[in-house]
Design a protein that fits this description.
The protein has one domain: 2-Layer Sandwich (GTP Cyclohydrolase I, domain 2). Helix content is 28%, strand content 36%. The chain is built from three helices and four strands. A four-stranded antiparallel β-sheet has the order 1-2-3-4, covered by helices on one side. It is elongated and about 55 Å long.
Length: 124
């Protein structure tokens, strides 16, 4: 019996310079990142083996480095870059869902956040 699972990390808070408006690319804003990493957990479960699963602390570090180390106009591009970077970093992950939320975006309406969710599958 194959044991497929999802490692999820929710609410990674970090600051980055992403947005269409000029000041958004200059002044860092808060972003919240959610990750769902899908993988085969057979070996991790059968042998209680930490090396057969995802180090979620390292996954958080990778996501934060992407947010803090780049500047994109679109959060769609930010979500894709986070997902692609994590797939490259963790060869055991088959699929990843990344959600990026921009907290208190500069809009004429009061909203808590705007965001995008993006799923990326490993190509065989």
């Amino acid at each position: 019996m194959t044991k497929r699972g999802v490692i999820s990390v929710r609410g990674i808070s970090c600051f980055g310079r992403h947005g269409v408006l000029r000041h958004e690319q200059i002044v860092p804003q808060e972003f919240l990142i959610n990750l769902e990493l899908e993988l085969d957990l057979d070996s991790a479960i059968e042998f209680d083996n930490v090396d057969a699963t995802v180090d979620y602390s390292r996954a958080c570090k990778v996501a934060v480095e992407v947010v803090e180390g780049n500047s994109f106009s679109l959060i769609e591009v930010l979500a894709h870059t986070i997902g692609a970077t994590l797939l490259a970093e963790f060869s055991i992950v088959d699929r990843i869902e990344v959600t990026v939320q921009k907290v208190a975006p500069p809009m004429q309406f009061h909203v808590a956040s705007v965001g995008v969710s993006l799923g990326i599958e490993r190509e065989n």
